[in-house]
Design brief:
Number of helices of chain A: 13
Number of helices of chain B: 1
Helix content of chain B: 10-25%
Bound molecules: flavin-adenine dinucleotide, zinc ion
Strand content of chain B: 35-45%
Radius of gyration of chain A: 24 Å
CATH architecture of chain B: 2-Layer Sandwich
CATH superfamily of chain B: Folate-binding superfamily
Structural class of chain B: mainly beta
Largest sheet of chain A: 8 strands, mixed
Shape of chain B: globular
Helix content of chain A: 25-40%
Radius of gyration of chain B: 14 Å
Oligomer: heterodimer
Number of domains of chain B: 1
Order of helices and strands of chain B: EEEHEEE
Structural class of chain A: alpha+beta
Shape of chain A: globular
Strand order of the largest sheet of chain B: 3-4-5-6
Largest interface: A-B, 24 and 24 residues
Strand order of the largest sheet of chain A: 9-10-8-18-19-20-17-21
CATH topology of chain B: Folate-binding fold
Number of strands of chain A: 23
CATH class of chain B: Alpha Beta
Distance between the termini of chain B: 26 Å
Strand content of chain A: 15-25%
Largest sheet of chain B: 4 strands, antiparallel
Amino acid sequence: MAEPAATFLAEAVHHQWTAFPELSNLCYVHGRPAGSPAATVTVPVRPERAELRVWEGIEMVKVGRAQVWRRTSGAAAPHRYSAASLVRHGLTHEPWPRVWRQVPLRPAYDAVIVGAGIHGLATAYHLAKDHGITKVAVVDRGYVGGGNSGRNTAIVRSNYLTPEGVRFYDRSVKLYEALSAELNFNVMFEQRGHLTLAHNDSSLRTMVWRAEVNKLVGVDSSVIGPEEIKRLVPYLDTSTETRYPILGALYHPPGGTIRHDAVNWGYARAADALGVEIHQGVEVLAISTTGDRVRGVVTSAGEIATPIVVNCTAGHASLLCDMVGVSTPVVTHPLQAAVTEPVKAFLSAVVVSGSLHVYVSQTDRGELVFGASTDPYASYSTRGSLEFTEELASHVLALMPGISKIRLLRQWAGLCDMTPDFSPIMGITPVEGFLLDVGWGTYGFKAGPASGEAMATLVATGKTPELIAAFDLARFAEGRLVGEKGAASVGH
Amino acid sequence: MIQIPCPYCGLRNANEFASTGEVKPRPDVATATPAVWRAYLYDHRNPEGLVTEGWYHRAGCRKFLVVERHTQTNEIRSARPAGVAS
Ligand SMILES: Cc1cc2nc3c(=O)[nH]c(=O)nc-3n(C[C@H](O)[C@H](O)[C@H](O)COP(=O)(O)OP(=O)(O)OC[C@H]3O[C@@H](n4cnc5c(N)ncnc54)[C@H](O)[C@@H]3O)c2cc1C
Ligand SMILES: [Zn+2]
């Protein structure tokens, strides 16, 4: 494989350095000579002034105060993070090498994955790791984690309503439990417990239903009363005089939160280390087919030949499907969330209230993260709205009157690919080679590891794994919906 | 907040309305197969652009409207009573 000479040259120009030919495959330029203005300075570098340092899988050229890094082999050996490497870097002040490579697009791949969110990245990682398929490109019109995978509220749980759903999400929770070690990246998965409050008889009934299905599949889940809720979350208003008194809750001890960026970056880095290429800023504009078979994709950076295209584009899923004429039930709705200034830790569990349309958790930094249901109409706009914040604040305060003085820091939105049954769509389509990993709506971050594993198996073997068979596209035409609305519409 | 020009009530905030989704022709009850019904129920165009959709003015005149809206900018092009040709 050609080393990224072009990329280096582009970067060298960008950083106002003159490249020297024998080092033309460098991929990282760091620093500027002392006192040089930011614009239009060309610094000629004489090779004899350059000092070369070599580590496992990476080397650095030092010229004065400037440093130039490169990976030493095509599939770069991963730079292992450890306490020792932290100390070494701390003592030597050497910059950390780039976490994944930036390489030019090749003319052909064994598979092209569209979307560098958790679903695309996890699929690529498992393709390389479990099946040895590494000639894979993950292309994204934005950047890694710039979609919903960097905008979600990072709740991970498996207490769903249908046996198919519970089994699937449970596999994901199991993979998450081992993910930090697997990826050599701390994903900060904290199983702090997850509470879904019931404020009326009918939601209490749904909680009991869910608890029984969960237990049957072997997931730790039970219905608890107000006293135990108060013990777990002392700041909740559990009095009986409120408009929406708390009658009970579905308690799910293995549920919790994770650091979403770390998961995205960890998967990107691990996939890259196995040889997968990640191409940011590359948009898929069209998909070419011969008969009913995928032949390649047309991107903003040129055409690529490939027999496999995996659609992992969340809110843009139906636009990609339009390119090959596959119709889906996906409707794109914005989902907003908000975060407060940090305060002292007082909330350990994740608390969800379906009737009040809110959920809240506290991050390690102390911020409170709030979320709710999707905006009430379809849209591709990620603009936040005041009515969302107003409603959110009033509902949160009904649950926790004590936090009325905390200020909101910011709010944002992502574009959710909603399906009629609140379950995802994974698997084949009428177009051979065009695969779906979409319909993740407001609940798909927790699913990334399990869907990545299953989608990779589907790509590699051509057979749909049992675990995801119920979530096929054909279920809508055949009337086999997997109804998860009762477990997924508010608590994501 | 986006606002919808209700032909009966004038310009009103969108939260007075309920969106009922894309407007599409209903299959013939007498001849439609289950597959046709399901496609009618579940399949959507979901365009990033102009969409013709239904809105119900629940906190106003309680009439159903047909609205043309751009799904990227949320700009509303037109709103007319449902069942009336444009
Ligand atoms: C506010 C909010 C809160 C949420 N909370 C939770 C939660 O607590 N728990 C949970 O499990 N889930 C949650 N979710 C849902 C979760 O974030 C998503 O389901 C999940 O991240 C989807 O991942 P993805 O990889 O499929 O898509 P994304 O991360 O959205 O990635 C899709 C990528 O595709 C790219 N793309 C689109 N079109 C093209 C094109 N034509 N060419 C190239 N690239 C393209 C985009 O740039 C984007 O980066 C939440 C979502 C939101 C918005
Ligand atoms: Zn009206």
